[in-house]
TrEMBL record:
Name of the protein: DUF6194 domain-containing protein
Domain DUF6194: 1-130
Phylogenetic lineage: Bacteria, Pseudomonadati, Pseudomonadota, Betaproteobacteria, Burkholderiales
Highest taxon, organism lineage: Bacteria
Organism of this sequence: Variovorax paradoxus
Pfam families hit by this protein: DUF6194 (PF19694)
Amino acid sequence: MTEDAITDYLIDMLAGGHFQIADDNTFFFHDGDNKFPFATIVTKDSEFDGSSKLDRPGVFRLNFGVGKERFRALFGETPAAIGPAAPDTLMPHPVYARMHWVSVVSPSAKTFEKVKPLLAEALALARARKAG
């Protein structure tokens, strides 16, 4: 999958939400307040997060928040260490795992199909938090 294809999918999924590009990274918000994204696409390393080696050509990382129960269902109580630069592998986010965020570096079309229901769940969770 390309970064553009995933961006288009998320924009279609939002249907009324917003996205914002900052420093070549894209932040997807479930409503207009733009306070906290439910998903991001990060395209380069930063001073606080360089573990995914995003400075490689064509490499990006899709990140999104899931609930505590889903996170534990995916990775267990104590997630096994996965190299944060491993491509096409759903893993705990290298920085925000304790907030139940997950990530995948440069997902393939097959992996993205598996991620789509998790993205829908992440969006629903973000909307429920706002409403609740």
